[in-house]
Amino acid sequence: MLNVENVLENLVKYNTIKDKENKKILDYIENTLNLIGFKTEKKDKFLIMSNKAETSIGFLGHTDTVEFTEGWKYKNFALTKVNNRLYGLGVCDMKSGIASIISAISQIDFDNLGKGIKLYFTYDEEIGFKGIKDVINYETNFPKTMIIGEPTYNEIMVGSKGIIEYKISFKGIKTHSSTPEKGKSAIMSAISFINELNKFYQIEIKSNLNKKFEIPYTTMNIGKINGGSEINSVPDLCEFLVDFRTIDKIDEQKIIRKIKILEEKYQAKVQQLNKLSPFLNESKISNKTCNFITEASFLENDRIILGAGPITAHEVDEYITVESLYKLVEQYKELIEKYCQI
């Protein structure tokens, strides 16, 4: 029987920012699971393990973390316990999920269960989702039900919004600002594009509601804009990044069509960075959804998103509570015993 705090302490000590110590953390996970009867099916930058030929439930978790920002009071690569809180980089997102599943399965007698469990540990979730894409390209036999251990503060989530991300670029003609009619401002083209896009969003997208989501409409965000070189020159280059968190495929299709129309109208260059459709499982155990994107969006089977909390992912002094961590272990045990019965 493995204590969940001890496992979490071992996971947090690895620096997995941009997968720096990816091999080390996978070696630790593999060796630990070997001791409790799990066999390795595939090990690369990702790891797949199982304990029986026939599995009915799977667990998926990413081992990488975001970079830490200035202002941390506690050590990044150590588990620090203060009263009811456990601090450390990645402790919430999502090494607590991985620790909880390892602890949970160490406490279950699978000899009394008809079916087994399959485990997937991925990389590069925080930047490009390369890990889950590699797993999908390799795996041909996912269990019917998958648990994704992202932080939810112990609430079972069975749906997620989709996402469409774009980089949109404009070319102008550079000239001196005293004679702007001789040039063409790439920034003004971008502003006109954004204004028309926002008008479309406010009228045709934001009014469509799905109250199964906490924020019950598709959101739009201009996350970054770059353009120009100096104050006295008409800018010849500008680009911006925009994302939409979609509630359904109707909004998704409308957005794609509008972007195409505006691309032609403003002679822009549009690059679609990511596109994932929303999903909502029919489930008797929950009807709750999350607004953030997880690796669950890449899968096609029944998906449960369930992890510790509170949700402090990407924050300074990231933490979870002790109660949430131990509760998660029990929740995982209940789900495993339910789905692995004969």
Keywords:
four-stranded antiparallel β-sheet, single chain, alpha+beta, 18 strands, 342 residues, 7 helices, elongated
Provide structural commentary.
With 342 residues, the protein is α+β, with helices and mostly antiparallel strands. It has seven helices and 18 strands. It has helices at residues 4-12, 22-34, 91-106, 130-138, 186-205, 249-265, 322-339; strands at 39-43, 47-50, 55-62, 80-82, 85-87, 116-122, 145-148, 157-160, 162-171, 175-176, 219-227, 233-234, 237-246, 269-276, 279-280, 288-290, 302-305, 319-321. The strands form five sheets. It has a six-stranded mixed β-sheet with strand order 1-2-6-3-7-17, with helices on both faces. A four-stranded antiparallel β-sheet has the order 11-13-9-14, with helices on one face. Strands 4-5-18 form a three-stranded antiparallel β-sheet. β1 and β2 (47-50) form a beta hairpin. The mean pLDDT is 95.
